[in-house]
Structures are given as C-alpha cells and as structure tokens.
Prior knowledge:
The structure is a single chain. This protein is mainly α. The chain has helices at residues 3-30, 34-45, 58-75, 79-84, 86-111, 117-128, 132-139, 146-176, 182-211, 217-237, 242-260, 263-290, 292-297, 304-340, 350-358, 364-371, 386-414, 422-448, 453-467, 480-506, 512-530. It starts with a helix and ends in a 7-residue tail after the last helix.
Amino acid sequence: MTGAGVQAEEGVFLLLLVFVVVFAGLARQLKVPYPILLVVAGLILSFLPGMPRIGLDPNLVFLVFLPPLLYSAAWTLSWREFQRNFVSIAMLAVGLVLFTIFGLAWAAGSLLPGFDWRSGVLLGAVVAATDAIAATSIARRVGLPQRIVDILEAESLVNDGTGLLALQFGLTILLNGRTPSLIEGIGQLVFLTCGGVAVGLAIGAIIAWFEKWVDDGPIEIVISILASYGAYLLGTRLHVSGVMAVIACSMYMSRKSPEYMSSQVRLQATAVWDALTFILNGIVFVLIGLQLPYVIGQIVGIRHTVLLEYGIGFSAAIIALRMAWVFAETYLAYAVRRWVQKLQPDPPQPRRVFIIGWGGMRGVLSLAAAVSLPYMLPGGRTFSQRSMIIYLAFCLIVATLIVQGLTLPWLIRIMGLSDSGRSTQEEQEARRVLATEAIMHLHRARSKNRDTSAIFQELIDQYQHRLDAIPPEREHTATGRNLAQRNEAVLIALQAERDALIRLRNEDEIDDEVLRTLQRELDLAESRMHTGSMTFH
C-alpha cells in the first residue's frame, strides 16, 4: 500500500470519528438514541459536495466490527433470563427467520421485477435477522421493560447465526442449482450451532482458567478483545458458526468473571469496552447512512419514484410480517399451554407483544450480507437482482432504525409500559442479603480481633443503617495503623458481600443485570478505599 493510500485511509477514519463524536453529542442534547441520529447524519452527509466516497466492505464488517460488538452485547445477557425466555427467543430467532424467508420466496416473484423464488430466498436471508448492534444500542435507551429487552437482545444475537446460515443455503441454491433436503438442512443447522457453541465454551473455559493467575488490567482487557476475535476466527476456520462461538464464549466468561476479575480490573475493563463499543457502533451507523449514493447508483432503468415505492412497500411488508408472526406465535403458544397441556399461564399482554414485534430493527449485518452477494453466477451470467437486494435491505434498515427507533419511546409512554419492578425488587432483596452477610462476617471478625473491635462495631453500625434503609451521610476517616486496620475490616465486609452476591446469582435469585449493578457498587467502594476516600455506597 502506498503512503498516499495510507494517508487517505487515515483521513477517512479520523473523519468518521469526528462525525461520531459530533452527532452522538448532538443526539444526547436532543435526547435521541445516537444510532438513529448517526444514520440520519450519514444520509445527509452522503449528498454533500466533496464528501469522500466511503464504501462498505463486508469483510470489514464480518472480521473487524462484528466479533467485538457481538462479544460486548452477549456479555450483558442474563443466562437466567435466556433460559426462562428460551422458547420465545427460539421462535423469533429460528421460526421468524424461516417464516420471513419462505414468505419472500413465495411472494417476491410476483411483487419484484426479475425475482424468482431463489432470489426471494436470498432476499429473505439477508433481511430476516434483526441486528444485535441496533438492539443493544437502542433498546436500553428507550425505556423498554427489562423482559422485552432480554428477549430482543437474545433474539438479535442468536438470529445473526441463523440468518447467516440461511444466507449460505440461499447461495448454495443459487450457485449450484441444488436445494438441500430438510434432513440436510437441519443437520447442518445443528452442526453449525452446536459446533460454534462448543468452540466458544472451550475458548471461554481456557481463558477463565488462565485468568485466575492474572491480575493486570491492561493484560486482561487485551485478552478479552482477543477472545472475541479468536472465537470468531476459530469457529469459521473449523466451519462452524463463528457468531455462536463468540456469543457462547462471551456469556461463559461473563458468568465466570466475578470469580477471576478483581474490582480494579472490572472497572478498567468496563470503561475500555464502553469506549470501544461506542466507537465501533458509531462508525457502523454512520457508514450505513453514507451508503445511499452507492445503493442508488447500482440500480439503472428504474425511476426514483418507483424505487421509493418499492422501498416503502417492502419495508412495510417486512414489518407487518414480523408483527403477524409475533402475535400468532404468542397466542398459539398460550392456547397450547392452556388447552392442550392444561396449564394456567398468564394471558399475553397485547401491548407487550406489539412492542416485541415493533422492536425488530435491522442494522449493518443485513447490509453487509447483501453487499457480499456475488456479481456473477456460474456460466458467466450476471446476478441482476443483487443491486435490488442491496437497495431493499438498505431501505429496511433505515425504516426500522428511524421509524421504529424514534417511535418506541412514544409508544411505550402511550401504552403505559414500564418495567415490572422485578429487577428493582430483586436488587433491594440482594442489598438486604448482602448487608446481612457483611454484618455476620464483621461480627465474627470482631470476635477474633478484640483490639480493633471499635472499628468493626462502627462498620457493623453502618451496615445496620443500610439494612434499616437509613442512608449513612457522614464520611469516616482514619490515619496510620487505624486506617490499615479499618481497610482490612472493610475488605472483609466487601468480600462477604461479593460472595453473597455470586451465591444469589448462582441460585437464580437475581439475574446478571442485578449482579453487575451491585458488583459495580462494591468495586467502586473498594476503589474509593484504595484512594483514601472510602464512603459507603
């Protein structure tokens, strides 16, 4: 690569970072989720005179952006909630993907010029999967109830794997002219999924074992970044799902991290990963908006008004398809549980079902999958539907991110949806258990250290105030030997709280979201102690 080429790429990268910072800051002022504003900004910037033409390389998305973003999103998934919502997640991540593909395979030939059922299968595979990046970046920022967030995030992660698998099947049908049998398709799905999970768990177990002997923030942060790329690349090299490998590795290491990560490392890693995912997310969403000139320029012979009609109609049809599946599947599952299994499940709430259907946003993965489609078919024929597939995928991404993303907060308000309070109740109960455990350990430690009993009693009193919901307002200071003794006593109490917190998580009394919230408070408390300004959280 020439020096001029390197300088040009450096300039483009710096320009993208400037866009991300400026428009993300503006989004915060406008109280709009920043991915939405970044996409809109990219659309506007793409038409400015002198704007560099920045194309979207699918290899850049699949090999550079996707692994760490999947890893970061999977880290925050709650294993308990994943298990509890597994049926709903599977019906969305597998059932809805197949429903979308078959629906487009059946309808594309009559609705889109030049399309047959094979092109419809490819189009369905490209747009079927919701996007983990969009779900993670937007869902938590618009006040969605936690259970809906859990379902949408898990769906978007799992269906990345099923969507890419469907794309492989579609390309096999198109390029080889052979349709895999049902048994072959199911077998390959099981092999790719289970193989990917096995690879991810193996890498996670090895790293978790190794991390027990490492307590260095920068090293552990680099290891976590390498884990995301390593799981993805090893999975693809072994011809299994790299996406599932990353998800499995991240969820396993997230589950084990309270046991091998120190408080200082956790705080450092959280800050680094927050910054990294923000940068990658921001660049991805700006790139989506900047692709409009490329997308429009590839289609010839069709008027822009007709293209606009196709884009709007296709986006509306996919959104309606998802809504139909979500409502039908939810009420069918309820009927089966009640009338066939003779159970007494809670009836579905139409408002929540609607929000799950409305929350299926697409992102850069769909566009990268579309751009990765071949230009030429066997025999030297041109794949003429490629440009239209890219255009329709782009329209659906913009429509779901902007229309659905902007209307979600408004819909949540008018529907009266708010978190059920489950997490808040679990958090309060966890605080009670943690304070109780700390008091018990402090009492035992006081009985063994009579000469410092006053220090232990002071801490016991403070924890008792917390237990009685009376927040401590004064800071306690000490110097010299008393400070060292007091710090030792505080560490005993904090470790007791951590042990109790992990036990509650392992017993499924709290989910991982509550664990991370309280664990961060404990880490911050220990950090303040090390800097000499200890106050109770």
